[in-house]
Amino acid sequence: MAEYRNLLVAIDPNQDDQPALRRAVYLVQRLGGRIKAFLPIYDFSYEMTTLLAPDERMEMRKGVIEQRTEWIAQQCRYYLEAGVQIDIKVVWHSKPFEAIINEVISGQHDLLLKMAHQHDRLEAVIFTPTDWHLLRKCPCPVWMVKDQPWPENGRALVAVNLASEDPCHDPLNIKLVTETLALARQVNQTEVHLVGAYPVTPVNIAIELPDFDPGVYNDAIRGQHLIAMKSLRQKFGLDEQLTHVEKGLPEEVIPDLAEHLQAGIVVLGSLGRTGLSAAFIGNTVEHVIDHLKCDLLAIKPDDFVCPLSPDEEESAS
Fold it and tell me: UspA domain spans which residues (predicted)?
């Protein structure tokens, strides 16, 4: 399993409170390890300053980087004084998600933490385009931290795919449960629940086939999912009360159960589909997290290949 001891925190440049940094400190105080506070910055106006010579523009960049580095140091001051190891790095880069992923790869980080903003009125987590890129393309697990206090006795809810059509889901399910249980034991003995969703009867089938019995179909589908869930929980010695098989779409079932259980975090597998496959097949993780009100940990399968090539890297100088 991942050690989660070399953490990269993507700093939010727009506010002084840094929930992702706070969560990272919480982890290293229990697991050990170190943190890198990382901020990519870019101001297009500096690139358009044609009246300045290139070396003068470079000095302006350097000044901005130094100012931001000092600002992050102030955010980290209390933790540094408490003995937490935190490195600070600020780079000039026009695409934040590329800079972050490049840093994950070059620094061999095993966990990325980033703040997810909370919508005050709806209480739903709001994800930015940078967040989506990271969830799809970052090779290490991505922990999206909600800017709200961790709920009292908050549980961990692992969303598993119990359908057997795609063979990649079985090892990913094992990985999700293994890593969540290990993290729960190491951090605070968090109670871990598993949830799987199964589809309802397609309305058009029930209409077009007069002899079709929706009740029999639903029972058969539910039975298959219950058997798959039983097999999965028995591998880890989990009590049946900690597993849930619910009828409905994952984007409805998972957020509803997370709220009912007062989960502090939902753990999801992300296949990282991009391009046409994402458009036609859809990314379940993206549909689900639109409705979440808690932290999210997205984990890729072992055979995931980051779609960013070295040619896409941009100079940070």
Answer: 4-146, 176-300
